Amino acid sequence: MDTLSLLLGGFATVLQPSNLGFAFLGCLLGTMVGVLPGIGPAAGTAILIPVTSALDPTGSIIMLAAIYYGAMYGGTITSVLVNTPGEAASAVTCLDGYQMARAGRAGPALAVAAIGSFIGGLVATAGLVVLALPLTRLALTFGPPEIFALLVVGLALVTALASQSMVRALIAAVLGMLIAQVGIDPVMGTNRFTFGWPELFDGFSIVAVVMGLFGLGEILSNVEAKTKNVFASRVGSLYLSRQDTRDSAGPIARGTFIGFFLGLIPGLGSMIPTFLSYAVEKRISKTPEKFGTGMIQGVAGPETANNSYANAALIPLFTLGIPSSPTIAVLMGAFMVNGLIPGPTLFTEHPQFVWAVIASLVVGNAMLLVLNLPLIPLWVRLLRVPYPILVMVIVVFCVIGVYSINNSVFDIWVMLGFGILGYALKKFDIPVAPLVLTLVLTPLMERALRQSLEMSGGEFGIFAERPLALGLLALAAAAIALSSLRSLRALKVDSEV
To answer: pTM of the prediction?
Structure first.
């Protein structure tokens, strides 16, 4: 069956009323998460996993994916209207988006952000459709040694790029590996770090852990931070003039390109594509001195790159099983909770599911374009709710949500414990992303490693005998080495200062 037939089958599934409803609800909740300063896509997706726990896997992932890219767009609204980014990737939009709003041009700023996000998301999804089957066929030729080496590469890239300090990133990664060891050994059947507690025989619940680390940890940090007063600028007309359209066309095209290709690289994060897009637009502009005063190019490029990145980042997950960002790692955890392992076998074992999710990216991005602009007054009113009240609501929601998945009080304590751990890691400037990624990837890496050693009779030389596995491991070592050199260079510069 060719790609077009599979994609049409995906559209037939996603256009069912129930799945359309899940995509719509996901877009709505995701935008709300993006609007609320300090929550972010990773925390929002983690907190909202329990909402999808009663759904079938297709509906669950369609809704969570919509929450993800909805949150990526939602941050734009507060960047433009109140000069406060809802999530990190939208921070650069404050520079010109807010100035446009002060000049009475909030409507065009939001409109071009929505249009650019739609185009960027659509092109990235088209890239996923084109690349999915070739990459999947390539990945299916991999044996356990190549799979292990590939997972090591993904982990190395994310660890190397997640923090300015390689040492802190490695601390988080090792901590995640240790946490992933808890439970019954999948081969020997012996207990590992369970201390006789039956609740730990299956290991820690991934949902409870990510809700604690990203959700509660983020909230505890934000409680300390001073909140800005919220005032809404007048949105005005959403109409783009001919000059606006001409000025935005190039940045949208370049933003799409930048976001797509950077989305394929694990570990870069969503801030780099947006800031790079802004830098490119400023550099090629004939009037770079006007950037920061309300240039529409400064909104169109970064916002397009943001959504293009968000959709392109799904390509390594779907085809190779590598999460390229913390939010994608949370999404991967949701796959595993639903009994699905992202990667090449997903296309052969669950084609109806995976193509429905891919088709939902097109439908969901169209929903965001049509629905969000009329709802801007609603998001502004939401921002007026006092932050302490929002915190209380979110914490109660988290407790009820994590309990409802397994009806387990123990999971509540796990979430609270990891919430405190997440807060402590932030205080010591240790990134949470490598911890979550190793927590999710370690069981897969352990299985691939053991299968590799069974093939070789316990000899690690099997990784040197297979060129592809050796090349991938060398790439991982190079990523770690380069990041370490960068850290040492930065340390040397600081000491000289």
So the answer is: 0.76
- Measure the CA–CA gap between 32 and 384, rounded to whole angstroms: 13
Q: 35-49, 57-71, 146-160: lowest mean pLDDT where?
A: 35-49
Beta bridge partners of 51: none
Please give the angle made by the CA atoms of 11, 14 and 19, to the nearest 5 degrees: 170
Does residue 184 sit in helix, strand or coil?
strand
Residues 6+ apart with CB under 8 A from 412: 208, 399, 402, 403
Q: If you compute the radius of gyration of the chain from its CA atoms, what whole number of angstroms results?
A: 22
DSSP string, 323-371: --SHHHHHHHHHHHHTT---SHHHHHH-HHHHHHHHHHHHHHHHHHHHH
Q: What is the pLDDT of residue 395?
A: 82
DSSP at 350 = -
Closest of 249, 296, 370, 384 to residue 80, by C-alpha: 296
**Which pLDDT score is estimated for 20?**
92
Q: How far is CA 99 from the centre of its chain?
A: 28
Closest CA to 101 of 376, 477, 426: 376
DSSP state of 87: S
